[in-house]
Amino acid sequence: MNNERRAVMFALSAVLLWSTVATAFKLALAELSPRWMLTFAVISSWLVLGAVLWQRKQLGLALRSFRQHWLSYCRQGLINPVIYYLILFQAYDLLPAQQAQAINYTWAITMSLMAVPLLGHKLYPRDMLALLLAYLGVLVIATKGDPLGLEFDSLPGVALALISTLLWALYWILNTRAAQQRQQLEPAVSLWASFMLAIPLLLVISIVWDGAPFPAADVGELGPGEWIEPHLFKGILASVYIGLFEMGITFLLWQSAMNLTKRTAAISSLIFLSPFISLIFISRILGEPIHMATIAGLLLIVVGLGIQKLAKPA
């Protein structure tokens, strides 16, 4: 199999897995708080990233990089995963999955806005058209097709979902700068180091905010041979799934696709399939009726993202 076919296979696998995570978010949130859900997910992702680095014989490199640039990794870890995912998961807790995942998908548009003050980029007319279409799509989705009525399922949820796009865009801009300073070309190292610093903080936040994940009363009610209540077990399994396929393995699959292909633009365009495939999982597994406004709004967002790609100078 040649490299281009392998790249397509890796990219499509990543797209399919990413398409399932919005559903996994809601399944985990049905059983766990957003804080504990994130804590279990980050621990799982950190472990799998560590295993990958060990297999690649890069764990020593990661530890040296961590010792030299721990403050930079601390800043990154504070944004991703701590603040970004806490806000994103709270948005998912307040909104239907179809709305939260579609709004979050506008982060690339948000990045082009933030690149103006932070990186000195310019906004071209096509950029402005892309922004207009994308945020019109957000309005259509959030109001279920009645943008003039301005009635939302949860205005705080919409606000949190939009704030999460700002944080994700900020993370990637800062991460790019930091990677250049560290001369570090392996993104898995950065994620592993950032997550290692984030885990203790997330444990403290979760315990202070929500208490222990397994209340003593629940443990006392367990029958012989049971070590955890079934509903908590489902939540933890969903959180581990999120750690593996939102933050860990899927990221590595996508990275492999980008490394193998010479047609980066064509392969990266496959990501546009993700939000539409995600609607199938949301409908079939969560039982959410998919509104036509969601599909229409997503089309506006995807068209905006496509125009944004065309707007980039050669």
Shape: globular
Let me know the average pLDDT.
Answer: 85
Which oligomeric form is depicted?
A: single chain
Assess the beta-strand content as a share of residues: under 5%
Termini separation comes to: 31 Å
Low-confidence stretches: none
Order of helical and strand elements: HHHHHHHHHHHHHHH
Radius of gyration: 20 Å
What is the count of helical runs?
A: 15
Structural class by SSE content: mainly alpha
Main β-sheet description: none
**Residues in helices, as a percent range:** over 70%
Number of domains: 1
- DSSP E strands, number: 0
Structure report:
It is a single chain. The protein is mainly α and 314 residues long. The chain has one domain. Helices cover 78% and strands 0% of the residues. Helix 2 packs across helix 4 and helix 4 packs across helix 9. The longest helix is centred in the middle third of the chain and has 28 residues. It is globular. The relative contact order is 0.22. The model has no long low-confidence stretch (mean pLDDT 85).
